[in-house]
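Appendix B, example 12.
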Amino acid sequence: MFFSALLLALLISVWARAEQVTLAWDANTESDLTGYKLHYGTASNSYSVHIDVDNVTTYTVAGLTAGQTYYFAATAYDASGNESGYSNSVSYAVPSPNGAPSTPATPTGASSVPVNTAVTFSTSATDPNGDTSLQYRFDWGGGVLSNWGAASQSRSWAAAGQYAVKAQARDSLGLESAWSSARTVTITSPAPVVVDTDADGVPDNQDAFPTNPAEWADANGNGVGDNTDAAQNHPPAAPQVLAPKANAVTALTPTLQVNAFVDPDAGDSHARTRWQIVQASNSLLVLDVTSTEELTAFAVPSLLLDENTEYYWRAVFYDNRGAASEWSPQAWFQTDFNLTDANGNGIPDSQEVDSGTDLNGNGVNDNEDVNVKAVHTKNGAVKVGIGTAPSSGVFISSIESTDPDVLDIDADADGISDTLPFGLLNFKLILDNPGDQAVFTVYFSEPVPKKGRWYKYDPGQGRWSDFSRHAQFSADRMSMTLTITDGGEGDADGVANGIILDPAGVLEASSSGGDSLIDGVVGGVGSVVDSAQSGCFIGAAASGGDAGDGVRGWWLASGMLSLVSLLLRKVLKTGC
C-alpha cells in the first residue's frame, strides 16, 4: 500500500567524531511498514548515496569528509516495495581539521633595563579554527621557558647581558605554533657608586691616601705616597730589543725577547714588564699586556696576529717600587703566511668539521653557516663551535683547538688533578665598535661535565682564572652563553681595540678536591701609539708614573681601523 504521510521530522546530532553524524526521525504508523532508507549527497535535494537502514529510526553515517557540507533525507517502504516520498531535508557541515595557531607577533616590551628589574612582554596570535582560548609561553633566552599562560608575562634577569625573547602559542587541543621572531632586551649593570673623599679624581677604593689630595699611590707599600717617595727611587734602564728585530719574518706566534733587567738602585728588582704590539698599516694597537712572570720573554698568544702583516713592538720595565723605565727602541717584524689554514676560513685545515656537523641545531651545516665556526678539538673526537646572532655586531674571525700537552700548559695550577676534557680553545672575535660587549654562544658535541667550569688562560702569566660568572650553561650543558667586554676581563690582548682574543677552556675539578684555581691577572692599560706616524710609538719617556698616561685616548682618535690582513708582502721598511 502507499504511505499516507511523509516522515514528520529529521533530527541531527553529532556523536564522538566530527567526520560522522547521527540522524533521527519520527516513526511511521502504517501496519505494513517494513523499513526506511537514508539518502544523502553534497548538493541540496540531490542524493548520490542511498542506504537501506531496516526498520530503525536512528542511523550514524560515517566516513564523511572534513570541511564538506552534506544534505540528508529519509523515505519509508512496505513489504511490497512501495516507498514514500522524501522527508524534509537537513544539512550538516563537517568541521575542518584542527590547525595550529598562527606564529605570534614579536613580543613587545622594554629594550633595556637594569638587572633584577621586571619587564612585561606581550604578544598575540590567531587560530584558524576560531579557538579563542589560546595560551602562550615565552623563551627568555638560552632555552629558559615560562609556563603556558597569558599573552602578557613578566621576567627579570639577575645577570647583565643581551637576551633574545620569543613567544609561542597553543590552542585548546594542544597544537602549538612556531616560535615568533626574537626581541632583544639588554640588561645593564647598575652604575657603581663612586666615593672620592679628597676630591683628587681617584676613587677611595683605588686611593692609597683617600684623605690626602696630593697623594693617591704607594707602589712599594712603604706608607709614603709615590709623589713624595719618587725622589728616593730611580727608574730602571730601558729594555733592549733582542728578537724579533728589523727585517725579521716570523711565525704567527713569535716570542718577544728583551735583555735582562738593569736598575741603578741597589736592591731594586724586576717586578713587571709591559708589552705592546701595533699593526703597521693602520696603527692599530693589537696587544697591551703587563706580565709579572715572563719578564724578559713573552710568547705572543695564538690568533692575535694576521698572516703576511707588518707589526711594531716595544716593552717597558717596572721595578719593585713602581718606577717605570723608558720604552725600548721599537722593532718591527713581518708575519709569514698561515700554512695551517690553506682555505683562509679561520679554521686550521686539520681541524675542519665534516659537512654533517650542526652543533647549534639550526639546520645549516656549521661549515656553511656564516654565523658559526666549529673545530675538531685536539682532545679526541669532540667538536666545539662558536656562534653569534645575525646583526649582533660580532664577527668570528678564527678559531682553533690547542693540545695543552704540546704547549706544556698545566691544567693543575692549584695542585689538584684538574683535566681539560675539551682541550684549550682559542678564538678571535671582531667587533663593530671598540670597547663593545660581545654576547655569543659556545656549542659542544657532548655535554660539559657537571664539575666543569669555564676558565680563561693567560699565556703571558701561565695562569688560569675562573670566568664562570660570565658564562651560563644550558640545562643540558650542550651549550654556553658567554659575555666578554673588549679590553676588559677575559680579553687576552689587554686593549679595547675592536678585537677580542680568548684562550680558554672547560676545566673539570678532580674528585680529590675543590675548584681552587688562583685567578690570573692580565694587565695592560692605555694605548701609546703616535697616530701621526703609521705604526710608530710616541717618544715620551715612561718614567715618573704610568707609562700610558697622556695617551689613553689614542685609539678613539685613530678613526675607522682596517682589520683586513695584507694579501701581499709589503716593501720592507727600516722604521719610523
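The domain at 112-188 is CATH 2.60.40.10 (Immunoglobulin-like). The radius of gyration is 38 Å.
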